[in-house]
Amino acid sequence: MPVELRPKDNPTHVVARVRIKVGSTPAFIWDVDKLALAEAWHDAAKQAIKEGNEYPPPSAFGSRSTVDEEAPKAALNSNWTLKQAYTKALEKKWAGKNSEAKQAAYYKVIAGFFGHNKRFSDITWEDLDAFIGAISVNPDTGRPRSNATINRHLSTLSVMWKLANSYQKAPIRIGPWPILKETGSRTAILTPEYEQNMFEACKQLQDTEMRDFLMILLDTGMRRGEVERLRVGDIAEKDLLILERFTTKNGDARSVVLTPRTQKMVARRAKGKKPHEKLFPINTNTIRHRFDRIKDAAQLPKEIVMHSLRHTFASRLARTGKVSLYDLKEMLGHRSIQATQIYAHLCTGSLRRASNLLSESPEYSSEEHDF
Question: Least packed by Cβ within 10 Å: which of 66, 100, 243, 290?
Answer without folding.
Answer: 66
